[in-house]
């Protein structure tokens, strides 16, 4: 007997159980509608298709977390919107990073003497390794791993303010050794991670 996947609860239940025919029904029913919705958000047919593909992939990978109270259509539309926001943020972030990258390279190239850069880079590496343990851990999470202050605070179960203080402490220590070149050196070391702004005060 064929299963009636048009019933929302039945569809969710069978998706959670990993039934591929339920997923096929989901795609057949909602793919075109979601593409139209995604295109209305991003104004780009190819990006819209990528967004929808990412959503379906995510739904399948996280199918066991679906709840029977979900209205599938509303849930999918919310997922598409969230994915659009994520894509938009990545694009905006990439543009910002590229601008900062070229600005930094121009600064380096326009300096009269760049022969000391390798020495300064090694100096900063040593200073990072010599930071107090907690300060070093937070600094590396922010710079090398690219985590935001909020993500670091959640991961370490500490306050946002504590993260700010420890990052500021790290910059104060390193700045004493390399002065105003600190941001250039850190960019060359770590590139465009999310914490590039890093306490410019």
Major sheet description: none
Report the CATH topology name of the largest domain: Rna Polymerase Sigma Factor, Chain: A
* Anisotropy-based shape: elongated
Query: Low-confidence stretches at least 5 residues in length (pLDDT < 50)?
Result: 192-201
- End-to-end separation: 69 Å
Summed up, the domain count is 2
Strand content: under 5%
Q: How large is the radius of gyration?
A: 24 Å
Helical/strand content category: mainly alpha
Number of strands: 0
Average pLDDT confidence is 79
Q: Specify the CATH architecture of the largest domain.
A: Orthogonal Bundle
The CATH superfamily name of the largest domain is RNA polymerase sigma factor, region 2, helix turn helix motif
Counted by DSSP, the helix tally is 9
Instruction: Tell me roughly what share of residues is in helical segments.
Output: over 70%
Please explain how this structure is put together:
- By secondary structure, the chain is mostly helical.
- It has two domains: 83 residues, Rna Polymerase Sigma Factor, Chain: A; 78 residues, Winged helix-like DNA-binding domain superfamily/Winged helix DNA-binding domain (Arc Repressor Mutant, subunit A, Orthogonal Bundle), CATH 1.10.10.10.
- It contains nine helices and no strands.
- Helix 5 packs across helix 9 and helix 7 packs across helix 8.
């Amino acid at each position: 007997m064929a299963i009636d996947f048009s019933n929302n609860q039945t569809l969710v239940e069978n998706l959670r159980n990993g039934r591929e025919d339920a997923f096929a029904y989901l795609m057949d029913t909602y793919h075109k509608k979601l593409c139209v919705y995604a295109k209305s958000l991003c104004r780009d047919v190819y990006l819209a298709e990528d967004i929808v593909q990412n959503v379906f992939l995510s739904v399948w990978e996280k199918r066991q977390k679906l709840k029977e109270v979900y209205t599938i259509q509303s849930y999918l539309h919310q997922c598409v919107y969230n994915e659009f926001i994520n894509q938009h943020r990545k694009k905006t972030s990439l543009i910002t990073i590229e601008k900062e990258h070229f600005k930094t390279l121009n600064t380096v190239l326009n300096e009269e003497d760049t022969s000391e850069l390798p020495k300064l880079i090694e100096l900063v590496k040593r200073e990072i390794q010599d930071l107090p343990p907690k300060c070093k851990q937070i600094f590396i999470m922010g710079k090398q791993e690219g985590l935001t202050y909020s993500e670091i605070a959640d991961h370490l179960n500490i306050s946002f303010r504590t993260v700010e203080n420890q990052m500021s402490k790290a910059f104060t220590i390193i700045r004493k050794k390399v002065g105003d070149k600190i941001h250039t050196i850190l960019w060359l070391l770590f590139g465009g991670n999310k914490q590039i702004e890093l306490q410019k005060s």
